[in-house]
Specification:
The chain has 296 residues and is α/β, with parallel strands linked by helices. It has a single domain, classed as NAD(P)-binding Rossmann-like Domain (Rossmann fold, 3-Layer(aba) Sandwich), CATH 3.40.50. Helices cover 34% and strands 12% of the residues. The chain is built from 7 helices and 7 strands; from the N terminus they run βαβαβαβαβαβααβ. It has a 7-stranded parallel beta sheet, sandwiched between helices. α1 links the parallel β1 and β2. α3 runs parallel beside α4 and α4 packs parallel to α5. It is globular, with a radius of gyration of 18 Å. The mean pLDDT is 96.
């Protein structure tokens, strides 16, 4: 998006619409091979100091929504520690570059959040680097489509989905909370799948429903400590996870009322808002960004 496109626009054609070129990639996928390329806000996001001095941790910050959030947080004045998988090192370098170009500290950590000890070490690293944590964004997730239903979901896949999407979030939050002061927050990434599950993403949808419950329950637990807990529920978003996990990308996002998938750059402002003081009275909320699909 260029500067002259930042004014009022028709959201149905603000970004590319399907049909897209057929494309498949091995997991975890690569931004540079996507057609059209995803927009993380590189040329459009303008910060205004809303997160100045915040110490932030983002899981899955190498690409997709995580990269867009890291970029936006940095341009709002926050330092960023983010996780990536070992095979995503190239993507992680690009996120670090964007954060550092914004004048903020970037700490990229290769971490498998399926392991409790790695989650503990990650929080220890953040505290060592920053002296504490003001915002934790539990964003990393794993999915793999199985069009043939529950019988086709192997236990290995089920275990990976649960441990990535739920165990990692649970452990990181548990270990981070003692280091988050009053005024800090936890932001989780759930999904439209929590409310409108696709049969071919059954195990993934299960975890996204659990994240909604976790968010609303934890928010009540830590409210008296002055810590807020919220979540963002995206609809279809054009990230490397899509060509890496879905068998058909040609019509991806066409089902949304706006007729297209979101770009990561369109999700980042929701996380900025929830992390900012403007959301000081907002907790236990799910901010839906679904392109018009109604959710409860």
């Amino acid at each position: 998006m260029t500067d002259d496109q930042r004014d009022q626009q028709d959201p149905t054609d603000q970004y590319p619409r399907p049909d897209f070129a057929a494309q498949n990639q091995p997991h975890p996928g690569w931004s540079g091979q996507m057609d059209p390329p995803p927009d993380h806000g590189e040329d459009s996001y303008r910060g205004s100091g809303r997160l100045r001095g915040r110490r932030t941790v983002i899981t899955g910050g190498d690409s997709g929504i995580g990269r867009a959030v890291a970029l936006a947080f940095a341009r709002e004045g926050a330092d960023v520690l983010f996780t990536y998988l070992a095979q995503e090192e190239g993507e992680a370098r690009e996120t670090s570059r964007l954060v550092e170009e914004a004048g903020q500290k970037a700490v990229a950590v290769s971490c498998d959040i399926r392991a409790e000890d790695e989650c503990r070490a990650l929080i220890d690293r953040a505290v060592s680097e920053f002296g504490g944590i003001d915002v934790l964004v539990n964003n990393a997730a794993y999915q793999m489509a199985q069009p043939d239903g529950i019988e086709a979901i192997p236990t290995e896949q089920f275990d990976r989905v649960m441990r990535t999407n739920l165990y990692g979030m649970f452990w990181l939050t548990k270990f981070a909370l003692p280091h988050i002061p009053a005024g800090g927050s936890v932001i989780n990434t759930t999904s439209v799948q929590a409310y409108k599950p696709s049969p071919h993403l059954l195990d993934y949808a299960m975890t996204k429903g659990a994240i909604v419950t976790f968010t609303q329950g934890l928010a009540q637990t830590v409210a008296e400590r002055g810590i807020r807990v919220n979540a963002v529920a995206p609809g279809p978003v054009w990230t490397p996870l899509i060509p890496a996990t879905l068998p058909d990308t040609v019509e991806f996002g066409k089902q949304s009322p706006l007729g297209r998938p979101a770009q990561p750059a369109e999700l980042a402002p929701a996380y900025v808002y929830l992390a900012s003081q403007e959301a000081g009275y907002v907790t236990a909320e799910i901010l839906n960004a679904t392109g018009g699909t109604p959710l409860p």
